[in-house]
Amino acid sequence: MAEHFVASPHWEWYILGYFFLGGLSGGMYTLATMLRLWGSPRDEAAARTAFLAAFPLLLLCPILLTIDLGRPLRFWHMLIDTTPGHGGLAFKYWSPMSVGSWALLLYGAFALVSFIEVRTLDGRMRAPLARAIAHALAGGAGRVVIGVGALLGLYVASYTGVLLSVSNQPIWSDTWALGGLFLASGLSGSAALLAWLARYRPEGEATEWRLAQMERYFAILELLLIALVLANLAGAGTLTRALAKPWGVLWALVVASLVPPLVGMGGPAIQVASGTGSAAVARAAGASRTPMLASVLLGVLLMRFVVIFSAQF
Amino acid sequence: MAEAVGFFTDTSVCIGCKACEVACKEWNQLKGNKPAFLADSFDNTGKLDEENWRHVAFIDKVPDAPTTTGNGAAWLMFSDVCKHCKHASCMEVCPTNAIIRTEFDTVFIQQDVCNGCRDCIAACPFGVIGFSEQTATVHKCTFCYDRLQSGLMPACAKVCPTQAIQFGPLSELQKKADARLATLQAQGTTQARLYGRDDKVYGGLNAFFLLMDKPEAYGLPNEANAVLPRRNNRTGYLGVLMTAALGVLAGLVALRDRGGTRRAEEALRRCGPTGRM
């Protein structure tokens, strides 16, 4: 049985905001890459929407992290070793916060480049540099860039869970599945958000059903990981604490938020693909998209809230 | 590299006078927290934190049932401090390298490097480190680094009236501790034990203890629970890899379902140009 005598780091609202937005941005970039590389030409519209969303979602992240530091002006100490006599870069592969700082910086560069590329392709940006970026990314190099960007996006969406586990805090360090859980939830949230955003772009609707289907798979994955986390906590003897008032109820709400995408409220594809739906049913399902989106995004936020706060209070 | 130094805190002779707490605050100019009455014992300090680098814990062992004279071990007095672990969890996770090992083999937080991320607080298994609102950085026992550099012993050891806190070269302290333990056990005090003397707890502690009960009674992790944060790196990232692989596979499956695309497009056509799906 694990026994903990640690103090709380007081990682609270800013960190919750970062975990939420970082998960969505990383998930969004990954979805964009998958849609562009493996989707049909009609999925390009949704891919562009996702690339356009990934960067603004990311923009707030370093701001939140910096504000949360005791000494925000020393944020760069995460990257440069300022210990007298040391010099050079501060990088520790065994410290997720150190690796994460670098990953966030690099991912930011990829998200920005893809954002500029899509704005240029859409004819919204005409600066020579933007055109040069779009031109350079037109062929195989572009596929490599978004592939690497997606790997970084997956890291940004997931390392925050590993960071919590790489500690001696109760709950966080009693499970190894938080990284996976954060990733599944980030993917699930970004698929729901993209399905909603894609409607605002011509041809974006063509991808809705694919996103709904992905959303369902991601929800299943997230449910499995929640079960795994709770099983880990039971093994460590901290399940009672994790499910104490009010956390148990909130965990139940997180699970409930995954029900709509599971039962096919995610979009018309579920009904159409299963051959049971009519156009009217499909239209009704489309109209129900907004509550589903709210439910999934709230679940993404709530899950992180429960994990962060239940260990510290 | 100077000789490794240490603290040997012998709880069997601690009388709970708190001179160590006071001397620490005096020397290090710690103003202390706002006075609080914890109503638990004579301990109103509560815990180690940014303002309390020594903390004398009063651990209640008063038996519930009446007992005859001499048969009740009423209180365990325990002058707690940063353990200056050989394998230090705080140092392991610190992303800025603000936490270093000094030439005296002690663990020290560089105040001009720390940016207040608080990852070390999440990592320290002893709850030693605290965040100061005043400096917006983290603080803990410095082992009186400034005094060591001037050839002086740390303030807490200097003032301890019962020699419960002994300071000196680590190897000498270990020998003293072994002798003290042997004496106690020969006297029949079989519950006495050393904590952090060997390498079973974080590779060995420069500030180690003689305890009169099991470590958990003092709020110290036992050998099985004295684990480093990095233990979860491998499995944590493995979990991420598996999830990423399954997530990407899910995306691939969803995107490869061409029949589904055709059916969806037919449905779209049936809805007409204004149909919202």
Automatic annotation (TrEMBL), chain A:
Subcellular location(s) per record: Cell membrane
Designated name of the protein: Polysulfide reductase
Domain of life: Bacteria
Record's keyword terms, sorted: Cell membrane, Membrane, Transmembrane, Transmembrane helix
Matches recorded under InterPro entries: Electron_transfer_protein, NrfD-like
Protein family according to the UniProt entry: Belongs to the NrfD family.
PANTHER family listed in its UniProt record: PROTEIN NRFD
Membrane topology: Multi-pass membrane protein
Membrane spanning residue stretches: 15-38, 50-69, 99-121, 133-156, 176-197, 217-237, 249-270, 291-311
Name of a matching Pfam family: NrfD
Gene Ontology CC terms: plasma membrane
Automatic annotation (TrEMBL), chain B:
InterPro entries: 4Fe4S_Fe-S-bd, 4Fe4S_Fe_S_CS, FDH_Electron_Transfer_Unit, Formate_DH_Fe-S_su
Binding sites annotated in the UniProt record for [4Fe-4S] cluster 3: C82, C85, C90, C124
Cellular compartment(s): Cell envelope
SUPFAM superfamilies membership: 4Fe-4S ferredoxins
TM region positions: 236-255
Gene3D superfamilies in alphabetical order: 3.30.70.20
Binding residues annotated for [4Fe-4S] cluster 4, in chain numbering: C94, C114, C117, C120
GO biological process terms held by the UniProt record: cellular respiration; formate oxidation
UniProt protein name: 4Fe-4S dicluster domain-containing protein
Source organism per UniProt: Candidatus Segetimicrobium genomatis
